[in-house]
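Hi V.,

You were right to ask for the full record rather than a summary. Here it is.
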Amino acid sequence: MQGRPKIGWEKPPLGVRYKLTKDLPNGNRMVRHDECIVPNMFIIPSIREPGTAPKRKERGTELPWAVPVEK
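Predicted structure:
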């Protein structure tokens, strides 16, 4: 992907969310949200999305869960 995306931050009740907006060479616009739910969960949209077909409100495809370890 070429060009620079616009990135913004939001503060929902449970953590932090970023919003990335990018105009694609084929005329489509990609809007991506990634959310961190405090203290240890991340909702990540598909990293394999080519942006060739319009989509709206797709669900996240990854849900990593980080467990703190005390030493």
